[in-house]
Amino acid sequence: MNAASFRSLWLIFMGEFERLLGLIPVEAIASSPFALLAACLVGVCAIALAARWLTRRGARRGQGAPLILDGSNILYWKDKTPKLEPLREAIRMLRSRGYAPGVVFDANAGYLVAGGYLHHDGFAKLLGLPSDNVMVVPKGEPADVFILNAARQLGARIVTNDRYRDWADRYPEVATPGYLIKGGYGENGLWLDLPAAAEKSAAA
Question: What's the CA gap between 184 and 103, in Å, rounded?
Answer without folding.
Answer: 17
